[in-house]
Each structure stands twice: as C-alpha cells, then as structure tokens.
Amino acid sequence: MSEKVRKFSRKREAIRTVLANTKSHPTAEWIFSTLKPEIPDLSLATVYRNLSEMKENGEVQSVAFWGGKERFDGNVEKHSHFVCDKCGRIDDFDFIMHDKELDGVAQSHFGGKIDFHTLVFHGTCCECVNE
After folding, report:
1. Which domain holds residue 34?
2. 11 class by beta-carbon count within 10 Å (0-12 exposed, 13-18 middle, 19+ buried)
3. What CATH number does residue 83 fall under?
4. Is 63 in the same domain as 6?
5. Are residues 86 and 54 both part of a single domain?
6. What is the pLDDT along the chain (131 residues), one digit of tens a residue?
7. How much is the CA Rg of the chain, to the nearest whole Å?
8. Is 58 in the same domain as 16?
C-alpha cells in the first residue's frame, strides 16, 4: 500500500512550527488565535483538520483533555506528562524514562500486542498548591 503524498502546506507548516516552539501543550483554539494574525485566511477547521492528520501520522500527540479541550504536544519522543487538575497546566516529565518492561508486563496480562504506553500524572501544580 502506498503512502499518501502530501503537497506542501504553508498552514500545516505554521501549525507544526507553533507546536515545536511551545512547551505549553496548546489547544487547537490557542494555535488558531496565535496564527490568525499572520495567516488571515486560516480557519479553526483547518487547524483541527491538520492536527488530526498530524496526530494520525505521528507528527504530534494528544496529551490530555482539560476543560473539554484536547491539548497537543509537538514533541513525539516518548516522555511522561503532569496535568494540574486545578488550572490545566501540563508539564513534560522528561526525567521519567519510558519503561519497555511495563509494556511487556501489560502485554502478558492483556493477551494482545502493546507497542507503547503513555504515562500521565494528575494532581495539583506548585502554583495552585501555594494559592
């Protein structure tokens, strides 16, 4: 089966660049409002469509839903996340290494094939704790 050949898209590249240059794990709406001043004909639907394609192709990952909105990460390397359940802040936990043994343990109990896992910690960030 041949892969779909995608022609260059200035809008898709702008979305990719915004995601690569932020650690905030933004929503589609945030990406849209960030890019709209420089790309006046950009629509929110275009942002959603491109994020969906990029997610499907492994170019971005969906980290969490908070406040009913999906949050994205341009860093697709295996790493963990922390989500503050009070304010919605999402931080990378790069210091927690991906544990392939955990994939094996889960697979032995599951009976299917596990390719990878994601690890997301939930709690309250230090700013919210100190309020």
Report:
1. 1-74
2. middle
3. 3.30.1490.190
4. yes
5. no
6. 445 556 778 999 999 999 999 999 999 999 999 999 999 999 999 999 999 999 999 999 999 898 899 999 999 888 889 999 999 999 998 777 777 788 888 888 887 888 878 888 999 999 999 98
7. 17
8. yes
Give yes or no for a contact between 79 and 94, defined as CB atoms under 8 angstroms apart.
yes
Question: Considering its fold, how many domains does the chain have in total?
Answer: 2
Whose tokens are 């491109």? That residue is 50
Residue pair 64/71 in contact (Cβ under 8 Å)? The answer is yes
Query: Do 61 and 1 share a structural domain?
Result: yes
What is the C-alpha to C-alpha distance for residues 126 and 129, in angstroms, rounded to an integer? Answer: 5
Nearest to 46 by CA among 23, 19, 14, 24: 14
End-of-domain residue from the set 74, 106, 121: 74
Spatial distance between the Cα atoms of 38 and 47, rounded to a whole number of angstroms: 14
From residue 112, alpha-carbon distances to 10, 78, 90, 117, 119 in Å are: 40, 21, 31, 14, 19
